Amino acid sequence: MGVHWLTAFIDHSAASAGDELRFWQVATNSALSARRGDRGQFATFVPSDGDAFLRVQETDSGDVGVHLDLHVDSVDNETIRSLRLGSTLIDRVDDGLAVMRSPRGMTFCLVQHHGEAQRPSPVEVSHLGVVYLLDQISIDIPHDAFDDECRFWSDLTGWPIHGGSVPEFRVLQRPDGMALRILLQRLDDDDPATLARAHLDFAVGEHGDAIAAWHQTLGATFARQGRRWITLTDPAGLPYCLTERDPVTGTL
Hints:
By secondary structure, the chain is of the alpha+beta class. It is 17% helix and 39% strand. The chain has helices at 17-27, 75-85, 146-157, 208-217; strands at residues 3-12, 31-32, 42-46, 54-58, 65-72, 88-94, 97-101, 107-112, 123-125, 130-141, 161-163, 169-172, 181-186, 197-203, 221-225, 229-233, 239-243. The strands form two sheets. Strands 9, 10, 11, 12, 13, 14, 15, 16 and 17 form a nine-stranded mixed β-sheet that branches. An eight-stranded mixed β-sheet has the order 2-3-4-1-5-8-7-6, covered by helices on one side. It is globular, with a radius of gyration of 17 Å.
């Protein structure tokens, strides 16, 4: 039992592939792997140090979004355990991959762990004189499902859950060296969403305005200013946030 690594997948359409790949490659200061899959639909953003934790997938439907891969010792055993916790099996591709949905509809995959263990260092943006890091996936949960969905993700990962900086946030305590942090966010009770969804977050410290301006030159669009974050959308319209968290510790 246990989740040894997390990978965030950006799901994009064929129409947005070029702009999407260029944006995330520059924004994360990473190299893009060779395309793979029967249609060349998968690629990995390879960091300059540490192990990869961000990948892209071109979807048949053309939908954009983010899903999560959990790297485990035994996909068979973790699939059975996940089902007992309340998830649904969508597809069993082979011995190394099971596509699942959480009780409130968040797509995730169980995949075979291959030794990933080293969190990449923060990225230096030399022309701005700052460092920052993509390091968090936020699972956005409908108001009425928040407690149950939080319990599911804590039980599935085996990670303790803690209160966040504001009442609508909870955080799973990631193991040392884990690249991605999981934030659980309760949506407002008037939010029309009926299913859980996810977005990505950068830790930028006090440099949110400068990085937001830079990202807009790369093709992002400003969406709104929050209490301790700035929300933008990438070239395909996928929302993400720049948060005031420290890029080294991941906390405020």
